[in-house]
Amino acid sequence: MRIAVTRKIPEAGLALLAEEAEVLVWPKSLPPNRDELIAFAAGADGLLTLLTERVDGEVLDALPTVRAVSNMAVGYDNIDVEAATTRGVVVCITPDVLTETTADFTFALLLAVARRVKPAADAVLRGEWKTWEPLGFLGQDVYGATLGIVGMGRIGQAVARRARGFAMTILYTDHERRLELEEELGARFVNLEQLVRESDVVSLHVPLTSETRQMIGAEQLRLMKRSAILINTARGGVIDTEALADALESGTIWAAGLDVTDPEPLPPDHRLLRLPNVLVTPHIASASEATRARMARLAAENLLAALRGERPPRSLNWEAARGRAHP
Ligand code: GLV
């Protein structure tokens, strides 16, 4: 059995794969582009991919020996699941293991942006800390603020649980009401328009789909409070980047914390990076040592199970894909 892994991943996953397969690891620090991926993975039975690789019908047609694709991520907008299913290719992801770590980071970004941690720390490094300033680096309170959660899935819920400790009023919007959670989390269901109008902090936790693409655009930003903070740890494409840059520049909203951007990576000369009220991190919300090891292990378990013909722990299309004869 041959498995192609598109980057070096934590040893916990590689060791598991090596027990049952010949493992090829993409040796460079930057991901393979489409042609490189096809050349690298030629003849492999399974692919262990990251969110940086686009796997669609064309790639799968060029790799006809591949029977399973295991994405080391909870998001899977980089994979055309329908194209995989019709070709009998099993697709797997790594949910749950990263939920709490991602929610932790959402709060890290929120607190850092609200309390202006980065500009204040940068000023210290520049030697500008001369005295205690009554008017220096004034931020926004998080404790007791109203938090609007867009997408009350696993990560949205984990963020809401943390928000209760900060005595936040919790609003949420989703494609359906989640009555059982409303009581547990003390959250109120509203539509997106109400959510952006009423929230002090808007935090995004939806997958990137055709419905959520640019769901936060000029219109939603205009409805937000001028003191509002926007946090994105989901996918960059959920926000209209240019509209956000305009809103931050003109003071339509107060600040943003972005762990994901569109495009990604953000070019170093991008206008967003010139704004003092934006904090951008390089898509690291799940990046704790323990969580990345858990993700690697689950991605490996998924892939090995699929290649053995067994039900993987977390597959998106196991039933449907195995119903198709693989060429
Ligand atoms: C990271 O963004 C993931 O989807 O796991």
Please name the defining characteristics of this protein.
single chain; 327 residues; alpha/beta; Rossmann fold; 2 domains; seven-stranded parallel β-sheet; five-stranded parallel β-sheet; 13 helices; 12 strands; 14% strand; binds glyoxylic acid
- Shape, principal axes of CA atoms: globular
Mean pLDDT score, rounded? Answer: 97
The CATH topology of the largest domain corresponds to: Rossmann fold
Measure the end-to-end span: 17 Å
Percent of residues in beta strands? 5-15%
In DSSP terms (H or I, runs of 4 or more residues), the helix count works out at 13
- Report the CATH C-level class of the largest domain: Alpha Beta
The SSE string, one letter per element, is EHEHEHEHEHHEHEHEHEHEHEEHH
CATH superfamily of the largest domain: NAD(P)-binding Rossmann-like Domain
Widest β-sheet, arrangement of strands: 8-7-6-9-10-11-12
Counting DSSP E segments of at least 2 residues, the number of strands comes to 12
